[in-house]
Structures are given as C-alpha cells and as structure tokens.
Automatic annotation (TrEMBL):
One of its GO terms (molecular function) is DNA binding. It comes from the Bacteria. Residues 149-202 form the RNA polymerase sigma factor 70 region 4 type domain. It holds the Pfam family Sigma70_r4_2. This is Sigma-70 family RNA polymerase sigma factor. Belongs to the sigma-70 factor family. ECF subfamily. InterPro entries: RNA_pol_sigma-70-like, RNA_pol_sigma-70_dom, RNA_pol_sigma70_r4_t2, RNA_pol_sigma_r2, RNA_pol_sigma_r3/r4-like, WH-like_DNA-bd_sf. Residues 1-24 are annotated as: Disordered. It comes from Echinicola soli. One of its GO terms (biological process) is DNA-templated transcription initiation. Keywords: Sigma factor, Transcription, Transcription regulation.
Amino acid sequence: MSLLHKSPVTPKSAATSNHSADHTAMGMDEGRLWDAFRRGSEEAFITIYKQYANILFNFGCQLTPDRDLVKDILQDFFIYLRHKRSHLGKTDAIKPYLIKSFKRRIVAALKKHHKYFSDEDGFEFKQFPVELSHETVYINRQIDREQLERLNGALQQLDSREREAIYYFYFEGLSYQEIAQVFEFSHVSSARRLVYRGLAHLRKFFVVYLLASFWGLKEW
C-alpha cells in the first residue's frame, strides 16, 4: 500500500472559486490560520484543505484498504469542518488535530461496518498496516528495493500501536507532544515510550538505520 496518493476529493468552494488562497493565509502560523478558518475565512479553509486533505487520505488508507470509504469519510469530514467551524476548538497544531478527529471518524465507520474491530476488545483499534513504497521517498534518494522490503517486513512485526506511532513520528513528522495528542495520552512521556519501544523492536531487525537514511536522522 502506498503512503502517497493523489487527493481524491476537492471541496466545491475550492474547485469553483476564482480565488486561490492568498499569501497572507499561506504565510500564517497554524494558530492564526486555524483561527481565521474558525472565523469564516474561505481562503483559510482552502489553504487547510490543500495542505492536509492528501495527508488525511494517506492516513485513512493505513486504517483500511477501502479507498472509496476513505474518500467518502474525508469528503464528509471537510464538509463537517466547514459547517461547524465556529464551534471547533482552538489549536496551534493543525495536523495532529485533524488526524485525531479524522481517525475517530474512520474508526466509527469501521466499527459500523464491523471491520478490524472486536466487541470483546471494546472496539480497540486492531490494525495499522504501514507499508512503504518507492513513492514514499524522495525521488533524489537511491532506494534499494531489497532494503525497502526488509523495512516493510520489520514494520509488520510491530504491534499496531507501535506501527502507528512510528508512522506519526517518521512519516508525518509529528513531535512526541503531537503524538500524545493523537493517542489522547495524558503524558508526553507515554508517546515517547511508545516510539522508543517500536524502535527497540526494529533494532532487532537491523532496520533503524534505514528509517534514518530514508527520512533523515531524527532525535529519539
């Protein structure tokens, strides 16, 4: 499964508007951009959509292989955001805020369709099949297919929460604080331990260096 996909949906306002997001909206920090969106700015909405729709679609495809379902939920999600904008909470970090909210919608839909969930487990999230492809990495990096398959295989040996944490940390660039926000942990240290545990398991397969070489060294 590729982590990169073209955006499957376009909000009507973005598709029909003669205005692109202005330089002011594009240059805002995330807190100001989100506040502008909450106050009714269409430019801010379009900016947020363009910046995060593809990321959310990629994320949704890690939770379920049903791409059509992900597209439908994503479309409904942005419609919901647009209609309820004035009632949304404040945030200075849009990506984890959206991932957390979108994850809830995906989980609810999978629960409704009885996919990847078990009643006896309290509908705990059971599957997070991170898989890398050559599309995942930058074109100017030389990637050995055998190494890529080795890393994919190692990732599948992690439990679902470890894979999810590694996905956020390395593939989406979330901080420990942002990962804690997505998982709804009370303490940032819980997110740090989860990432550490995943990396410790990956060390057994001698593939941590592959993560570092593909996405750059990152403190952990």
